[in-house]
C-alpha cells in the first residue's frame, strides 16, 4: 500500500501508527504540552506572588483571577472570527512571544524591587487575551496537520497533555516556589512560551489561502459570530457542552483563585502541599484523554453493528 501525506490520506500501519509519524503534529503537541505545563505553574504561582510577596487580600486575589479569565468571556467570540482571517501558525507564534514578555516581566520587576499589584493585574489581563487567541488558533490549526480520521486521536492526546499539565504543573510550581520563590517560578512559564514558539517555527505545513472567491468571511466577523451562536444553540451536544464547561470552569476558577489564600493563611500549609492538592483535581482528565480514541472506536463499532 502506498502511503501519502496529504490531507485526508492514511499511512501504512493504521491510524495509531501514522499519527506518531506526523512530524508537524508532534511539534505542535510538544510545544503545547510544554506551554500548558508552564501555564499551570503560573496558575499556582501568580496568586502566591500576590499573597506572599504583595500581601494581597482575598478580594484582591479574586480580582486577579477575574483579570486572568476575563478574556474568555469578552474576547473568545471575536477571537474565532479574528483567527479565521489570519495565518494561524504566525498568530500562535506572536501570542507565545507576547506571553513570554508579559509573564517574564513579573520576575524581572520583582528582581529590581518594582513589582506591584497593578502590574500583576495588567499581566493577568494581557496574558488572558493572548491565551484565548492562541487556544482558538491551535484548535483551528490541528486539522491542517492531521487527517480527518486522526483528529479524535490528536484531540485526545492534546487533552491528555492538558490534564497531565494540570496535575504536574502545580506540583512543579510548588517545588519551584520553594527553590526560587514565587516570582522566580513564573520565569518557568515565560521560558515555556519561548520553547512553544520555537516548536511552532519548525512546523513545515503550509496553510491554505485565507480567502476564496465568494468566501463569507469577507462579509465581516459579526455575521460569523451570530451564525456560530445559532449553530451551537441548535445542536444539543454543543449546547450541553457549553453549559457543562461554563459551569465547571466557574467553580474551578473559584478554587484556583481562593484556594491558595485559604490553604496558606487559614490552614498554614506549605506551598508544596498547596500544589499537590490543586494537582489532584485533574487526575481523571488524564485517563479520559488517554482513553478517548479507544472509546470513540468502540462506539463506532457498536453503532455500525446496530445498523446491520
User: Quick one: biggest sheet?
Assistant: none
Helix count equals 11
Helical/strand content category:
mainly alpha
Architecture, CATH level 2?
A: Up-down Bundle
Approximate strand percentage: under 5%
Spatial separation of the terminal alpha carbons = 29 Å
Count of discrete structural domains: 1
Backbone CA Rg? 21 Å
Shape: globular
Provide the succession of SSEs. HHHHHHHHHHH
The low-pLDDT segments are 1-17
Give the overall average pLDDT: 77
Quaternary organisation of the protein chains: single chain
User: At the fourth CATH level, what is the homologous superfamily?
Assistant: MFS general substrate transporter like domains
The helix content, as a percent range, equals over 70%
CATH class: Mainly Alpha
Question: The CATH topology, please?
Answer: Growth Hormone, Chain: A
The total beta strand count reads 0
Note down, in words, how this protein is organized.
The protein has 308 residues and is mostly helical. Helix content is 80%, strand content 0%. The protein contains 11 helices and no strands. 36% of the residues are buried.
Amino acid at each position: 500500500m502506498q502511503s501519502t501525506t496529504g490531507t485526508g490520506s492514511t499511512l501504512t500501519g493504521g491510524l495509531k501508527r501514522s499519527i506518531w509519524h506526523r512530524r508537524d503534529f508532534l511539534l505542535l503537541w510538544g510545544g503545547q504540552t510544554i506551554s500548558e505545563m508552564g501555564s499551570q505553574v503560573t496558575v499556582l504561582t501568580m496568586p502566591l506572588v500576590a499573597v506572599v510577596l504583595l500581601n494581597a487580600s482575598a478580594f484582591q486575589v479574586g480580582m486577579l483571577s477575574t483579570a486572568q479569565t476575563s478574556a474568555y468571556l469578552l474576547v473568545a467570540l471575536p477571537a474565532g472570527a479574528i483567527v479565521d482571517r489570519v495565518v494561524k501558525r504566525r498568530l500562535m507564534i506572536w501570542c507565545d512571544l507576547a506571553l513570554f514578555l508579559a509573564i517574564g516581566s513579573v520576575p524581572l520587576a520583582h528582581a529590581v524591587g518594582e513589582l506591584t499589584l497593578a502590574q500583576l493585574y495588567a499581566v493577568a489581563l494581557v496574558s488572558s487575551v493572548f491565551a484565548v487567541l492562541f487556544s482558538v488558533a491551535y484548535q483551528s490549526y490541528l486539522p491542517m496537520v492531521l487527517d480527518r480520521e486522526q483528529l479524535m486521536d490528536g484531540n485526545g492526546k492534546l487533552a491528555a497533555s492538558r490534564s497531565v499539565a494540570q496535575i504536574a504543573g502545580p506540583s512543579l510550581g510548588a517545588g519551584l516556589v520553594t527553590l526560587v520563590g514565587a516570582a522566580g517560578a513564573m520565569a518557568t512559564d515565560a521560558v515555556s512560551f519561548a520553547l512553544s514558539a520555537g516548536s511552532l517555527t519548525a512546523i513545515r505545513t503550509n496553510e491554505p489561502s485565507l480567502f476564496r472567491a465568494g468566501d463569507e468571511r469577507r462579509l465581516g466577523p459579526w455575521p460569523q459570530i451570530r451564525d456560530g451562536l445559532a449553530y451551537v444553540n441548535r445542536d444539543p451536544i454543543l449546547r450541553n457542552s457549553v453549559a457543562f464547561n461554563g459551569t465547571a470552569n466557574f467553580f474551578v476558577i473559584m478554587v484556583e483563585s481562593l484556594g491558595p489564600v485559604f490553604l496558606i493563611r487559614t490552614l498554614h500549609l506549605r506551598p508544596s502541599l498547596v500544589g499537590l492538592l490543586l494537582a489532584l483535581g485533574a487526575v481523571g482528565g488524564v485517563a479520559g484523554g488517554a482513553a478517548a480514541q479507544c472509546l470513540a472506536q468502540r462506539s463506532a463499532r457498536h453503532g455500525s453493528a446496530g445498523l446491520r
